Amino acid sequence: MELKTAFPRSHEHRELEWACAIHGGAGAIPRTASEETVKQYREGLSGILADGIEMLSAGAAAIEVVEALVIAFEENELFNAGRGAVYTSDARHELDAAIMDGLTGRSGSVAGVRRVRNPVRLARAVLDSNDHMFYAGEGADRFAEARGLERVENRYFDTAHRYRALCEAQGQNTVLLDHDQGYGTVGAVVRDRAGNLAAATSTGGMTNKAPGRVGDTPLIGAGTYAANGLAAVSATGRGEAFMRHMVAYDLCARMRYCGTALEDAAHDIVMSEMEAGDGGIIAVDHAGTIVMPFNSPGMYRAAADSSGNSVVAIWDPPRPTSDTQ
Amino acid sequence: MELKTAFPRSHEHRELEWACAIHGGAGAIPRTASEETVKQYREGLSGILADGIEMLSAGAAAIEVVEALVIAFEENELFNAGRGAVYTSDARHELDAAIMDGLTGRSGSVAGVRRVRNPVRLARAVLDSNDHMFYAGEGADRFAEARGLERVENRYFDTAHRYRALCEAQGQNTVLLDHDQGYGTVGAVVRDRAGNLAAATSTGGMTNKAPGRVGDTPLIGAGTYAANGLAAVSATGRGEAFMRHMVAYDLCARMRYCGTALEDAAHDIVMSEMEAGDGGIIAVDHAGTIVMPFNSPGMYRAAADSSGNSVVAIWDPPRPTSDTQ
Predict the structure, then answer these.
(1) Does residue A139 sit at the B interface (CB-CB below 8 Å)?
(2) Of B185, B207, B236, B289, which residue is the catalytic one?
(3) Is residue B185 annotated as a catalytic residue, yes or no?
(4) A28 touches chain B (CB under 8 A)
(5) Which CA distances in Å does A30 have to A167, A176, B84?
(6) Which residue on chain B is closest to A133 by alpha carbon?
(7) Do the bridges between strand A197-203 and strand A186-191 make them parallel or antiparallel, or are there none, so unpaired?
(8) From CA B287, how far away is CA B16, in angstroms rounded?
(9) A-B C-beta contacts closer than 8 Å
(10) ipTM surpassing 0.85, yes or no?
(11) Which of A165-179, A242-256, B169-183, B308-322 has the lowest average pLDDT?
(12) Strands B224-226 and A95-101
């Protein structure tokens, strides 16, 4: 499986005003899924991408756009973040999220959140607090309450399809990821008109995970990172692999210290350093180049830039369909 | 303030069997502290260093040594980890720890632990589980119980001097770090006879911190990192600064991608990239070279290697005393 640069290379040499990529997780539905199911996921991705295009065309800041797009994923129960999150082994939901502003280097992370409707909004509130950078567990929910964020009961996150997945996982006594071949996380990376970068990621974790388990999503440098002049990165997959390789930061370190291009650094990390099946990343660099490499069977993803390019895809190579894959 | 390489450079060219460094936090007592107080801290450091020397001389593995030395710090109430940990704003204790094995790349992290006597032992149990890598909050305590680790009531961590610090902090409505000018964390880095590297870090966090706040200590790549062939690193100081700069991983990235020597990479990061007062690190490379740079007024630290070098120090430059600083 080879690296997929989102758009043809010729665009690298054009001055882009903005660029945007989103992912809905490396735990994609199988290629044998029904047309109706495929359509639902593609429409979900297309709608969120359209929001990004609209905001960025209007001049919105990268940090605002990544937060808004991840909120849109959290509101869509197809994806494993916010409503639609998977269940822990005690049949509850614990949500993780992070957001990072490449302009200021500031970030906010939350882990094990149970009562906040939009975990990425809480991560943003942590970033904006300009004090601590990471809250976990009950303290994260209390911070959310102190900041007046919308509170929900934990059962707000319940969905029938995720509960079925929990029953299956417990029947097999395994920790399942989103869909049996994959992993569920959502994320967005943006280069805005001002040239600023930002990244955000949110997840419900893994079906039947132990309560308290923290994956790579909220860990700055592992699942999420953004630095102006380098890149913005959001990862999805087997969290422990992304933590071990410090994937999001390592991509930026290779660009900074070796002068490696985004495409080459991303390819090396995802296709050579990581193991097949671990997952993938979306990333955008300072010039607006977008890459979306993954080494799993699929990754829900979409991207667009100011030159009019846009793409929505699930598998690699894409399954032939009537519209653009 | 300049970089302190622990031992004279001539030792770089000698084949070292083993090397070991420990820190008790960048929040050191003021230089005006009484001789008695200084003596207590120096004896604490010397005793723990002696344990390390004994284990490494006998051929113990790096991962075993860093765990044992951090446990010794956790048992010593002078230092802000385990017993002696500072108080959160709700007058409780929440403990964070991490450990990483440079040989296997495996790590274990815990955050917000309340009922485990030795958080670094729990981090080690997470590492050994070879499954999840990070547990936070109540789930971390539950994991500890499932693994049969020694459980204590939260008040076991109570000490009068830390409670006074909480009252002072709440009186001033600030978040105090260990001692008013600094930060408290403990850590150990080791290069063993087999050439393997390991690092471990443990902390009680900051006095009057918000419940749920996670600092850099348990975050692999920020406050703790180890990779054979590169370096083992443990940080102490303003956690958010270490998280933003991904200090522990960045040190290894500069060595790996730029071929920078440990001393130069550590100096650049601590003395140029970070801000004065942020704190410091201890690190050892594959050849057994030890560095302990810090940009705060002091850092409790000690180091030894198989060539017979050893040092115990608090400030920089050292306060003149009758024994070696």
Answers:
(1) yes
(2) B185
(3) yes
(4) no
(5) 20, 15, 53
(6) B240
(7) antiparallel
(8) 7
(9) 141
(10) yes
(11) B169-183
(12) unpaired
Cα B55 to chain center, whole Å? 18
A5 CB-near residues (< 8 Å, 6+ apart): A263, A289, A290, A291
Q: What is the pLDDT of residues A165-217, one digit of tens each?
A: 888 888 887 766 544 444 689 999 999 999 999 999 999 988 888 899 999 99
The CATH homologous superfamily for domain B19-310 is: (Glycosyl)asparaginase (3.60.20.30)
Q: How far apart are CA B32 and CA B109, in angstroms?
A: 36
CA neighbor of B120 nearest in space, from B134, B108, B104, B106 = B108
Catalytic residue from among A5, A88, A185, A203: A185
Q: Which DSSP string corresponds to B116-127?
A: BS-HHHHHHHHH
B144 Cβ neighbours under 8 A, 6+ residues apart: B113, B115, B116, B122, B125, B151
Report the C-alpha gap between A312 and A159 in whole angstroms.
25
How does DSSP classify residue A176? Answer: B
Inter-residue contact A269 to A249 (CB < 8 Å): no
Distance of CA B284 to the CA centre of its chain: 13
- How far apart CA B284 and CA B256 sit, in angstroms, is 15
Nearest to B212 by CA among A66, A134, A146: A134
What's the pTM? 0.93
Is B111 an 8 Å CB contact of chain A?
yes
pLDDT of B175 above 80: no
pLDDT of residue A13: 56
Q: Would you tell me which residues 34-53 of chain A have a C-beta closer than 8 angstroms to some C-beta of chain B? A: none
Cβ <8 Å between A243 and B132: no
Which residues in chain B have Cβ-Cβ distances shorter than 8 Å to A174?
none
CA proximity to B38, closest of B295, B236, B300, B237: B300
Spatial distance between the Cα atoms of A125 and B3, rounded to a whole number of angstroms: 37
Q: Which of A105, A173, A95 is nearest to A136 (CA)?
A: A95
DSSP character at residue A156: G
What token pair was written down for A300?
A: 């829900």
- Which helix (DSSP H) or strand (DSSP E) does residue A305 occupy? strand A298-305
Q: Where are the domains of chain A?
A: 19-310
Q: What DSSP character marks residue A277?
A: T
Say if B222 is an interface residue toward chain A (CB within 8 Å).
yes
What is the C-alpha separation between A252 and A224, in angstroms, rounded? 11
Quick check: B187 and B282 in contact, CB under 8 A?
yes
Listed residue (B250, B295, B282, B136) closest to A105, CA to CA: B250
**Considering only alpha carbons, which residue of chain B is nearest residue A220?**
B243
Q: How many other CB atoms are there within 10 angstroms of residue A58's CB atom?
A: 9
* Whether B112 contacts chain A with CB within 8 A: yes
Asked if B113 is an interface residue toward chain A (Cβ–Cβ < 8 A), one would say no
Put simply, the answer to whether A246 touches B219 (Cβ < 8 Å) is no
Question: By C-alpha distance, which of A222, A225, A155 is closest to A189?
Answer: A225
A8: exposed, middle or buried (C-beta count within 10 Å: 0-12, 13-18, 19+)?
exposed
How many Å lie between the alpha carbon of B240 and the closest alpha carbon of chain A? 6
